[in-house]
Amino acid sequence: MKNIFLICCMWITFSGFSQTQLIHRKASIAQMIDEISAENLEKYVRDLSDFRTRHSLSKGTINKEGIDASQAYVLELFRSFEAQAGGRLSATIDYFTVASDGRRIPQDVQMGNVMATLKGTDPTDDRIFMVTAHIDSRATDVMNATIDAPGANDDGSGVAAVIELCRIMSKREFPATIVFVALTGEEQGLKGANHLAERAKNENWNLVALLNNDMLGNSNSSQTNINDNTRVRIFSEGIPAAETERMAAIRRYTSSENDGKARQLARYMKELGERYVDQLEVKLIYRNDRFLRGGDHTPFVQQGFTAIRVTEMNENYYRQHEDVRVENGIQYGDLPEFVDFEYMRKNTGLNLASLASLASAPSEPQNVGVDVRRLTNTTTLRWEAPAIGKAKGYYVLMRETDQSMWQKKFYTEDLTLTIPYSKDNYFFAVQSVGQDGDESLAVFPQPITR
User: What are the pLDDT digits (tens) for 97-145?
Assistant: First the structure.
């Protein structure tokens, strides 16, 4: 049976008159969003915090403490979802050895990424969509592997979201494959992410997009004392780290500094997140990451993959990388009582809406181009059908050059469209639309010069 679309109406006023904007919510995705449980998220976070420390070097600890015990916990949860997936979900720990670096790795050590792979239902679809968070934690001294480091928000919140996404999505079928990962070694230098990014590159994975979640649950800032659980940030690179000389030449010619694949993914997630998750505004941050900090998406962008970071809007530095203590009347430490689980629920929904739509949609249109051979006040775009999946039609997207989000969508079932707007004054892109309305990532057009 085909999916039913739920239609919500929102009234917007422009210069004294009103128009109705229709927001289409696909029923199957809306249902999955409704299944996200703040109570489940809280249980996962508290369970992870109970391991006392999840430091990447906390080997050989006893009494169900340390990194090994916490990884076994996540693996057990992933495997508990296998039965409901009809043989399509498989979970494992991908072990690897990290050599001593004389800095944060004092001696060679074995680490592991906990992975659950939900195999796509289309045997001709080799696309992979990945959602990650890091399971390791730390206190003030990054080398102290024995002190209490509950890591409730950093990044127990991200791992909890990944677990809940796996629980809900493994009950459904998607043409493409989705991989859920609890990475390790983030605090010691992005070790798990580096290993997995290199593996994906060496094994030629068709990794279309990676959503990295690091700190999803803090809604109260330090110093400024802002309380806000209605906004979340997505960090994305501008000029690709893996840009070639040819890519750079085209970027300069088209002024497409804000239209690389990571920025297109961030825009996509903002649109989908705000479409499906009520009381959540997604803020696009035009930086790959924050000052003085790093995230597990970075090794993937360095390998040429499309990857972004999702993180809370306001950070509380009393609860990040701090020993658990009370000092001058202030409670320090990353404790579960400071996590906003309703905020986590909404941020998990942002991930779910994006992943479900991407894994259900056909792949992007191919060879998207804009005709620049003549001086005209119209714009003609051309493209080819997607390589994977069947497109019912296409959206041509348009925005003014100083705007961050697409402002107009033109639907067509042809492979070309001419619209009465000048290519000199607007940016354009094209995305595939599947049989049930699922949209691919947008593709910025290359100039057609002959």
Answer: 999 998 999 999 999 999 999 999 999 999 999 999 999 999 999 999 9
Cβ proximity of 359 and 178 under 8 Å: yes
How far is 267 from 238, CA to CA, in rounded Å? 12
Closest of 339, 270, 447, 246 to residue 48, by C-alpha: 339
Q: Identify the sign of the CA torsion 46, 49, 52, 58.
A: positive
Return the SS3 of 262: helix
Q: What angle do CA 269, 270, 272 make, to 5 degrees?
A: 60
Exposed, middle or buried by CB within 10 Å (0-12, 13-18, 19+), for 234?
A: buried
Q: CA-CA distance, 283 to 279, in Å (whole number)?
A: 13
> Using CA atoms, how far apart are residues 153 and 172, in angstroms rounded to an integer?
28
Rounded Cα distance between 381 and 368, Å, is: 7
Cα separation of 288 and 309, whole Å?
8
To which H or E segment does residue 205 belong? none
Give Cβ neighbours of residue 18 (< 8 Å, ≥ 6 apart).
Answer: 11, 12
- pLDDT tens profile 269-302: 999 999 999 999 999 999 999 998 889 999 999 9
Three-class SS of residue 331? strand
Cα–Cα nearest to 378, from 410, 426, 331, 412: 426
Give dist(CA 125, CA 114) in Å, integer: 24
Name the token pair of 197. Answer: 């990014």
Cα distance between residue 31 and residue 276, in whole Å: 10
Cα 336 to Cα 90: distance, rounded to the nearest angstrom: 30
- The per-residue DSSP string of 148-199 comes to -B--IIIIIIHHHHHHHHHHHHTTS--SSEEEEEEE--STTTSHHHHHHHHH
CA gap 68, 279 in Å, rounded: 37
User: Are the CB atoms for 70 and 58 separated by under 8 Å?
Assistant: no
Contact predicate 281/273, CB 8 Å: no
